Amino acid sequence: MAKRKISGIINATEHPMNLETPWNQKQPDGTYHAYAGDDIEAFLKKELSNRTPTEELVSGETKPPTSGTVFDAMVGTVTDVDVQDSEDGTQYVMTVKQKDDQGGESSKEVRFSKYTDDDKVVVNIDLTDSGGAGLPASQYLALGSGFVVKYSVGVGTAGGGTVDGYSDLKARVIVKRGSTVISEFRDAEFVGVTAGQSYTFDASPYLKDATAYTVQVEAQATYQDGTLMKTATAKVTMVAMELETTYSAGNGLADGGYKNDVNIPFTAKGTSGEKNIYYRVNGGQAFTLGLSAGSGVQQKNVTIPLTQMQEGTNVVEAYAQHENSGVVSRVHYITLLKAGGGVTAYAGLMFSHRAAGFQRDWKHPVLEAEQFTAWNFTYAGYDRDAYTARVKVTDRGSVVKEDLLQRGETGSYGRTNVNVEPLDYRVSCGDAVLEVQVNTTSHPDIEATLAPDAVCTFDAFGRSNTENNPASWVSGDKRMEFRDVLWSVNEYGAGSGWHKDRLLLAGGAGMTLTADGGYRPFNEADKPEGFAIRDVGMTLEIEYSTANVTDTDAELITCLGQLDNGNRYGLIVTPEEAKFLTGVVTEAMDAGQVLRYEDSVGTKFQPGTNIRITYVFYPNVQTNEQRTLIGFYVNGEESAASKWLDKVNFDIQSQLEFKSAGADLNVKSVRIYNKALTSDEVLNNYIVDRNHLEDADGEPGVRSLDEDNRVLNEGDTVSMEKLMGLMKKRRNSILVLIGTGSVGSEVPSDSDTLNVVDALAQLNDKKANKLVREVRFYNGEDRTLDFILTNVYVRIQGTSSVNYARKNFRFYFQKTASGWTVTLSYGEIDGNGRQKNPVVTTGKKNLFKLRRNSVGAKLACSKCDFSDSSMTTNTGGAKLINDGLKEMGLLTPAQRYAKDHGLEDDYRSAIDGLPCDLFVAKSADEDLTYYGQYNMNNEKSDSYPIFGQDETIGGEKWGEGDTLNYLEADEEGHKQYLPVCFETLNNSNPLCLFHWLPSTEPEHKDFMDYNFDGGLEFNHPKDTFWSDGGGDAEEEPNLKDHLGTGDKYDKMYKATDRMMSFVYRCVKETPAGRNMVYSTESHSFEGVDYEDDGDKFPTAKWQSDTFRKEASKYFDLPHLIAYYLYVQFNLGVDQLAKNMLIRTWDGVKWLIDYYDGDCQLGSDNKSFLTGKYDDNRQTKRDGAYVMQGHNSWLWNLIVANCWDMIVEIMVSGWNGGASFMSAFSIQKAIDHFDTEQMKKWCS
Questions:
Q1: Which partner for 946 in 142, 653, 675, 855 could form a disulfide, CB atoms 3.0-4.6 Å apart?
Q2: Number of Cβ atoms within 10 Å of the Cβ of 175
């Protein structure tokens, strides 16, 4: 109960009490004045002196007592009344002395709350329609119409007062069909919400049937150790009522109009109950045509007698109505021509729309449209003097459509209204004119808007080849000039011209965007004064698709210039790539080879896909954070960026060309701005151009795209609260870092001016820690695993991160500064940053977990994947290969043990992680600042527990008991637990290519001294070296100092030498390696034949009988092969030499784990897209191999000697497991990369 603030005492002399006077009274400032207890006592004694009360106060009453109420509470003769305040000040305590009928006297205590029901603390739900208006108790809606509600939740008093001290505010929405919760909501969970924030719920997709539904919002909060609950409902009954016709606007025109009665066929269908068709002619009396009460399809003819028609134009309006609910079908507006001698020209019109009934003015029709939803009307024309009539559609005097229509033919015009201003059209044929106004119903719940001030906009929607001049495509003073377009497309899509709301260019047809005097969009000399690209920027949008591709390199869209050195620069779009060349060619050394990169901004994609590309050229203006960048967006989402400054001169003399040699090109729209759109404007333009409000045919509509990306506050900053509002639907996660820092100190202080993330970035030292006061992680997959981590050490993670603008961060869950305590608490975090009943640990007990079955780790890493703008392939690839290998039955020893012993622990073969958005603030009271998209991952350092290489597993110590069944025996039959894991570091280092000189060779020490520490890094046991360590046996041991001692380091060295020497022996017996020698000058091997057979792998050169027979003694071959196939199919250009984890549990059999997969799908470590879809390990381009690891001895031996096993694993599966093609299907890749990764972020 909220305490009412008593701010004054009521003077009983000035304001005398009577029997109905409240004992406390609300004041204008919201506080209360109360009578003093002595005054109340005196009044009661006076009133009760001659009265005999009857019954007690009603049980459960909470209203403030009046004197009359107290009087009624008395029993027997009252001899004394005493009134005092209760101990906590919230009640009046009245002690009454009474005489009973036996002559005795007793005391009775009666307590009264000082508060009214208005003071009761409750959860409030404000439930409205999408526009914020109140909802009726129930309503009927036409089936297929949208139903969107808004709700906000809060905690306060029933009288509207504010309340503090509540927590765990949550809400959920469920939808009921009748009284049954529909399946999609049966497991709906309460999710944290922010008090007062408005949330939108679109129920439309769930209201599929003609029946009653309830949208129910439930909310709860914790207050004073109790749970407050509230439910609000919106009831709606969906009613089906359809009325369609096959009638055409061109009917009757062949003979110059109707000379007999007219039959208009209608098909009606609706929910059971009384139904009728209503129609009228020329605004006259309405006629009724009865329909049967059933729900089946009914055919009805509306007959218009010739006698009711006037010569010339007549108008018929018709709709069907479900009488019980009042729901009406679409309303039809149809014009008819009655023949007559005075008819010289006629313009016909026909449309249907959602409306309440007939037109207000039948001569001036209004078409009711819906924002973001396509509308259209059809028309026809009659010219008495010609069989072909010229019909024009004009908008405020401008011709928007012109057709040459033969008698009986129809044309159509329509569009999708992004704005809601009324539109006025005229349909004319000669002197005959019809006017139609289009009014658009807005959707105020949708925030996306179209960016204004486009230089030109070309949209193919609604265009047709029957137009009088289909070759006219004009926007302002810009136009398209066409070449070799047939203006005819058959039902199979053959031909060229307008087709399915696109312009189809095929068979060599093309067009040029031009103007009088030409139009060169990338030539600053042509720009209006004050609109130089360098000063204000520029934006180009093109939406298109390709088909019938015969040449994937065909240049379909171009706007190119040429530098003095001959390098081209400008825009090129091919069937599988869009790029803007800067004209710069970069040469770089990688693995001893010179690589040549043509600098460009763009990406590759699958031919045939509909795609919207947007190039934004940001101006060289200090106030623009993205100044001098070329931003590239795909379907509204930023995909890549590069600087244009000192590269692009914006003097391209070419015009924008569209061609079809090598592929059919379908152009949907082109739009150009003489300004740089913001990323939000780019996305909004994409959203509002979708032509359909709701999702349709598997494509998202305007509403869902808008909802999924509605994450901005006022001022275009990303809102933490709005992202939290999406967690239930999107299952997105959020990471928050709170604290201050400085470059010079590990711990925060009052003098700090930086937030802790900026302090880490400015320090830019991967070995320096900063103490972060608070880390919050909101786990979108499992809110019970939200955590708050306080006083924790954080540092920059990774060598490459030091060189990137955005940093990766490593979290030490168990480490903090001296004198501080690091604390971890798991439990759902509410909108106020609080947890209810969290599970709390400190220090060494703190373990990072993302899922309930995760193996806890003492480190975590928030990774921004700077070289992979999609943020998907690294973490997404890790989860895909982990899950795929499990499905294939290719398990590690730890995974086999866990499976056989029924353990729930998720021992992995690759790290786990969740996509998240990062926010930062100096303090909990400061506004959060958005820092971008991240993945919250397991950290590779100290990751051995999650791979099952800790000391124990399932309560058993590794190397003892049943664990021995999961370890391999050495040549002598002995088994031991010897966990080792190397990370490969360098593509050109011999050890990363499995080049090795055995310990039996005299130059072995030279080989190790020059190569080992630069090629292999111990991931476990970490900080172990060959010779570069500090030498301390506990901190940085050197293997070479332990040789022959028999300790674990000596065993690790011997196990590595055993495996690597086997590879060496096998290579020595191959034709490729039989002549190789080790050079102490180059410290590498010479004389190995690595040449391919053209573009094919030279299988014969790498044949080794020993490898075929004995490799399984040294390697988990099926596991290695699956890894190799994954890297090949996913074009992991940087994962066959460096970026591998070579792991063993016993020092006998080794496998390779996936790590660091941001260089996949052909993108290399320098963020250049070097690979194509059909590339492989033998592909060479610009003098270098696309994929690293071409000279790897291990992979060459596997491919040459294990081909049958490779095919079996890929096609059939190994040992009863799923095949590679099944476990790593395209759909599963999409599920991991697109759904599990990309869809967790907003655009």
A1: 855
A2: 20
- For the record, the structure tokens of 213 come out as 């539904």
Residue 114 is predicted with a pLDDT of: 57
Q: Which CATH architecture has domain 121-238?
A: Sandwich (2.60)
| Residue 1148: exposure state from Cβ atoms within 10 A (0-12, 13-18, ≥19) | buried
Q: How far apart are CA 58 and CA 88, in angstroms?
A: 23
> Rounded to whole angstroms, how far apart are CA atoms 613 and 605?
11
Beta-carbon count within 10 A of 981 CB: 23
CATH class of the 240-443 domain in this structure: mainly beta
3-class secondary-structure state, position 1089: coil
The region that residue 537 occupies, defined by phi over 0 for left and psi between -120 and 50 for alpha, beta otherwise, is left
- Report domain extents, the chain: 24-113, 121-238, 240-443, 470-523+542-609+642-670, 717-866+917-947, 971-1212
1195 close to 1189: Cβ distance less than 8 angstroms: yes
Give pLDDT, residue 1033.
60
Cis omega (within 30 of 0) on the bond before 521? no
Q: How far apart are CA 824 and CA 840, in angstroms?
A: 6
Q: Please state whether beta strands 366-370 and 432-441 pair in parallel, antiparallel, or not at all (unpaired).
A: parallel
Band of pLDDT at residue 867, cut at 50, 70 and 90: low
Distance CA 408, CA 249 (A): 8
Closest of 792, 774, 783 to residue 924, by C-alpha: 774
How confident is the model at residue 27, as a pLDDT? Answer: 64
150-159, 976-985, 1199-1208, range with the lowest pLDDT = 150-159
Summarised one tens digit per residue, pLDDT across range 725-768 is 888 888 899 999 999 999 989 999 999 999 999 999 998 888 88
DSSP-derived 3-state class of residue 754: strand
Going through 474-547 in order, the beta strands assigned E by DSSP cover: 474-475, 478-483, 488-489, 495-499, 502-505, 510-515, 538-547
Q: What is the DSSP string of 476-488?
A: TTEEEEEES--SE
**Helix, strand, coil % in the chain, rounded to nearest 5:** 15, 35, 45
Q: What are phi and psi of 875, to 5 degrees?
A: -70, -45
Beta bridge partners of 920: 737, 929
Q: Both tokens of residue 878?
A: 């890790």
Cβ 851 vs Cβ 912: under 8 Å: yes
Four-residue CA torsion sign, 1043, 1049, 1054, 1060: negative
Residue 316 and residue 1240: Cα distance in Å, rounded?
A: 51
What is the Cα–Cα distance from 879 to 942, expressed in whole angstroms?
A: 19
Q: Which amino acid would we find at residue 392?
A: K
Helix (H, G, I), strand (E, B), or coil: what is residue 600?
Answer: strand
How do beta strands 32-35 and 24-26 pair?
antiparallel
Distance separating alpha carbons of residues 525 and 532, to the nearest angstrom: 8
- From the number of C-beta atoms within 10 Å of its C-beta (0-12, 13-18, 19+), residue 1153 rates as buried
CB 916 within 8 A of CB 777: yes
φ and ψ of 220, to 5 deg:
-150, 155
- What value does the CA radius of gyration of the chain take, rounded to a whole number of Å? 39
What span, in angstroms and rounded, lies between the C-alpha atoms of 963 and 982? 23
Long-range contacts, stretch 1219-1225, CB < 8 angstroms, 24+ apart? 1219/888, 1220/884, 1220/888, 1220/1122, 1220/1125, 1220/1126, 1222/887, 1223/883, 1223/884, 1223/885, 1223/887, 1223/888, 1224/880, 1224/884, 1224/1125, 1224/1126, 1224/1129
| In contact, 44 and 50? CB cutoff 8 Å | no
Residues 6+ apart with CB under 8 A from 778: 724, 727, 733, 734, 735, 736, 786, 829
Q: In what order do the strands lie in the sheet with 262-270?
A: 241-245, 262-270, 298-304
> Quick check: do 121-238 and 240-443 share a fold?
yes
Q: Kindly state the greatest CA–CA separation across the chain.
A: 126
